[in-house]
Amino acid sequence: MPQVNGRFVPDMKSPRTPDNEEPAEERAHDFRPVDKGFTKEMALAEAERCMDCKKPLCVEGCPVNIKIPKFIEKIREQDFGAALDIIHEDSMLPAICGRVCPQENQCEGRCIRGKKSEPVAIGQLERFLGDQPELASKPQMKPANGKKVAVIGSGPSGITCAGELARNGFDVTVFEAFFTGGGVLVYGIPEFRLPKAVVKREIDGLKELGVKFEFNSVMGNLANADELLNEKGFDAIYVATGAGLPKFLNIPGENLPNVYFANEYLTRVNLMKANKFPEYDTPTKHAKQVVVFGGGNVAMDAVRTAKRLGAERAIIAYRFTTPRPRASRSCRLSRRSSSSPARTATCAP
Amino acid sequence: MYKILEKTQFSEKVFKFRIEAPEMAKHAHAGQFLMVRANETGERVPFTFADWNPEEGWVEFIFMVVGKTTKMLSTYEPGDAILDVTGPLGQPTVMAPGTTCVIGGGVGLAIAYPVARTLVKTGHEVHAIMGARTKDLLLLEDQFRELLPDDHIHITTDDGSYGEKGVVTAPLERLLQAKAVDEVFCVGPVPMMKFSTLTAEKYGTPITASLNPIMVDGTGMCGCCRVEIDGKTKFACVDGPDFDATKVDWNDLRARQAAYRTEEGQALKAYEEANCACHR
Ligand SMILES: Cc1cc2nc3c(=O)[nH]c(=O)nc-3n(C[C@H](O)[C@H](O)[C@H](O)COP(=O)(O)OP(=O)(O)OC[C@H]3O[C@@H](n4cnc5c(N)ncnc54)[C@H](O)[C@@H]3O)c2cc1C
Ligand code: SF4
Ligand code: FES
């Protein structure tokens, strides 16, 4: 680690370490993860690029204000356990957030290095640490305080809250409508962007902290707030039931068969494994030509799924003429199409 | 895991399961449904509650073997467990006080029966019109007969092999003409529901249809179950399954129901080939 007068000197020459991706032509046909994540060498090289700013704007850009330069410093020192502990002070889901957070609008979007060259690959570094959970110190558990909390929904919101409460001594039960935990992380975001094993690891971690999970539990129908508070002895309820209903376009024909809302299209494949039909019972359509309306993460997940289900032509149709739709980096468009102002674009798989 | 406490076979293809589910039993209402995922590779399929008992902690549903999942379920025995059962889902059936005509066609009879039973329990006078293609496909006749007097049961078969030859609209029309019913509830194949609706409309009698589109999550998240009601998109799993039948776009429902016919056939064939006696 280069130093002058005892102070670290950042590497101002090297370009941003590129993602460790599978070649497009190979990955387009199956659901294996697209991005293999940084190797140790890549992480160390990238960590050298951080300037350890006095006023780190990246931290302001992060919704939970992770102490980014501090954990990057620990990466440089190769003390990965300490680096992970620093992240854990503010976020318990680095393996997930490192993969799916829209970093280009948050931490990396504000990174000072991004002004003259490319921002530090903060998300990749976060993920690099999150994927080695065994290095973290055992979480500090406060003694049980005798209070019971019901968390409704097991998406990122529910599991974050559950973990936080459990560490602070609360007795937590998560009620989830589906048969498995993770919310959008398991039914929405595809395997190739966020492996389900990563989500399972987080859920298992919560179980180890003593969090109980009740699946197949549609709250409101199976028990209402009154019953939870007055009959089942909960002291508080945290509602994390997600964004819910799909939005309609109100255009003729939108209810025809073979027209899907992304939630259905993605749930069939991600949660019900329709790509493995008939080994799994849930079918889906394997269309040769697919058009996806929208330009965010969900649209990218859908169009990339269509490719993997065998589409010869998969098209994004987006209502704005901005050069680049709103999707985050982990599901961005290919460079060729992202520089084109056209309303439709083909997508890198 | 949800344990099967009892299995009753009504006919060659019709079964009833009693499942241990204490919380669900406390909150179930007529017209609501549950969703089953039989095993790890299973799909999620909806079944209407046939009965429930909060004291003993069980719920029941009736099903007819039509595809792979129901075929596989029919091989489950008491003591076996179903991997996932979720419910209660959907809105309860609400009928105005008075005399109700409950029409069930084909497998729809498995849904019509619990509705009829609840209506009887809540003080309604009930007429049942039971329709089937042929005698062997007529479900739950004994159960309906136990529930209702004989002159309140009207049976039709398409081929005339039992009851009156023809379709359910003939007895419906007679009841409406005689002003014998205040309200109609129907469940079954789309053409049956559509023509029942046209008939009821002719007499200005309110009619409710229980719609059965394909579902995936059953909680209003995916939009698979969407139906067009009065030109607006509704989700059968959370807004229904009961809707004002005069407002339903039947062509849309029919098309959406048929969307996976080919795949359903494929799945059943694969299952039968893997499980038939000659391959075992
Ligand atoms: C396909 C897709 C891709 C996305 N990609 C990104 C991305 O790359 N980056 C990003 O930042 N965001 C992304 N998002 C958005 C992100 O997933 C959501 O902001 C996030 O999941 C919200 O988390 P949550 O915990 O509030 O809700 P959810 O993840 O929706 O979880 C809610 C949970 O509550 C359960 N539930 C609902 N009602 C009940 C009830 N009555 N009783 C019990 N349980 C109930 C649901 O089954 C679900 O499991 C994406 C969304 C989708 C759909
Ligand atoms: S803004 Fe960029 S360079 Fe500065 S501390 Fe944050 S990550 Fe490092
Ligand atoms: S089945 Fe998914 S919204 Fe109704």
Question: What's the layout of helices and strands?
Answer:
The complex is a heterodimer of chains A (349) and B (280).
Chain A: E1 3-4, E2 7-8, H1 24-27, H2 40-47, H3 57-61, H4 68-76, H5 80-88, H6 94-100, H7 107-110, H8 113-116, H9 122-130, E3 148-152, H10 156-167, E4 171-175, H11 184-187, H12 196-208, E5 212-214, H13 225-231, E6 236-239, H14 262-270, E7 289-293, H15 297-308, E8 313-317, H16 335-338, E9 344-346
Parallel strand pairs in A: 3-4, 3-6, 4-5, 7-8
Antiparallel strand pairs in A: 1-2, 8-9
Helix pairs in contact in A: 2-4, 4-5, 6-9, 14-15
Chain B: E1 2-11, E2 14-20, H1 22-27, E3 33-37, E4 44-53, E5 58-64, H2 68-73, E6 81-82, E7 84-89, E8 99-105, H3 109-121, E9 125-132, H4 141-147, E10 153-157, E11 164-165, H5 169-177, E12 183-187, H6 190-202, E13 207-210, E14 226-229, E15 232-235, H7 236-239, E16 242-244, H8 250-257, H9 261-275
Parallel strand pairs in B: 8-9, 8-12, 9-10, 10-11, 12-13
Antiparallel strand pairs in B: 1-2, 1-6, 2-5, 3-4, 3-7, 4-5, 13-16, 14-15
The structure holds flavin-adenine dinucleotide, iron/sulfur cluster and FE2/S2 (inorganic) cluster (FES).
Binding site for [2Fe-2S] cluster (chain B): 222, 225, 237
GO molecular function (chain B): 2 iron, 2 sulfur cluster binding; flavin adenine dinucleotide binding; metal ion binding; oxidoreductase activity
Keywords (chain B): 2Fe-2S, Iron, Iron-sulfur, Metal-binding
